[in-house]
TrEMBL record:
Pfam families: UDG. This is Type-4 uracil-DNA glycosylase. It comes from the Bacteria. Keywords: 4Fe-4S, DNA damage, DNA repair, Hydrolase, Iron, Iron-sulfur, Metal-binding. GO terms for biological process: DNA repair. Transmembrane segments: none annotated. It is an enzyme of class 3 (hydrolase). Gene3D superfamilies: Uracil-DNA glycosylase-like domain. NCBIfam families: UDG_fam4. It catalyses: Hydrolyzes single-stranded DNA or mismatched double-stranded DNA and polynucleotides, releasing free uracil.
């Protein structure tokens, strides 16, 4: 915004400027802009991304179909990551989906990597995109309360009480739209490797998107509460906390699911 005290003919006192900003936020604007709009999907790629970890730098032949090329690259980069730090570096460097261009921050994971419970959500929202951490907005606050009620926390140092949290996608889809099947498929090798490196005792799939990615199934209201297997581990689908915020009555079933997790963790 310029120092000009008017904006398109309106007097721009502090109150008007604040009202204008709030209105723009309600319309979905989530960052300040220049005078002319920028289409980030039509920009040359950003400055060179951080080099992937040494183990994943092997040059790969370029097949003709760029999507296949990227899929093969994702497999190779994920498989080559020997540690979480290498996986994060490889995933952040991966250029195979456009979401990366529109996101502010790469959002890898949060919590204690030694945790027995690993939660997989959908994708970063606005607040997660701002902070570069999963589940830190309203839904994330509810998620913390829910798991706190059975004695689990992402801050816990003790692995018995700890949570580890990630998402199917590490970049925010524009306007919080649902991830597309091609985006999920492209990032799946990273998620699989993520689970292998964490080696939790059990997985929790939050909502339809991780059920689609990990189980190739959807219909969370039917899937929730039924233990199944994903990536070779006991897995419980649960309703997403964003859904619970909109549908408080569903919290009763979520509580039953939390108790089922607590029971499963008992020695
Ligand atoms: N919803 C998700 O599924 N993941 C987040 O990180 C935030 C909201």
């Amino acid at each position: 915004m310029t120092a000009d005290p008017t904006y398109r003919g309106f007097a721009l006192d502090a109150e008007t400027a604040l009202a204008l900003l709030q209105w723009q936020a309600e319309l979905g604007a989530d960052e300040p802009c220049l005078d002319a709009p920028i289409d980030r999907y039509d920009m040359p790629d950003r400055a060179a991304p951080p080099a992937p970890a040494a183990a994943v730098q092997a040059p790969l032949a370029l097949p003709e179909d760029p999507a296949q090329d990227h899929a093969a690259l994702a497999e190779a980069m994920a498989a080559g990551a020997r540690t979480l730090a290498e996986l994060a570096a490889a995933q952040e460097a991966f250029d195979g989906i456009d979401l990366k261009k529109g996101a502010r921050n790469f959002c890898f994971a949060d919590g204690n990597p030694g945790a027995r419970v690993m939660i997989i959500g959908e994708a970063p929202g606005e607040e997660e995109d701002r902070q570069g951490r999963p589940f830190v907005g309203r839904a994330g606050q509810l998620l913390d309360l829910m798991f706190g009620a059975i004695g689990l926390s992402r801050q816990a140092v003790d692995a018995e009480r700890a949570l580890y949290i990630t998402n199917v996608l590490p970049w925010r889809p524009p306007g919080n739209r649902r991830p597309e099947a091609t985006e999920m498929a492209m990032m799946l090798p990273f998620l699989r490797r993520h689970v292998e490196l964490i080696q939790p005792d059990l997985l929790v799939l939050m909502g339809n998107t991780p059920c689609m990615a990990a189980l190739n199934r959807q219909g969370i209201l039917k899937l929730r509460g039924q233990w199944t297997e994903a990536f070779g581990l006991p897995t419980l689908p649960m309703a997403h906390p964003a859904y619970l915020l909109r549908t408080p009555l569903a919290k009763r079933e979520a509580w039953a699911d939390l108790l089922s997790i607590a029971a499963r963790l008992e020695p």
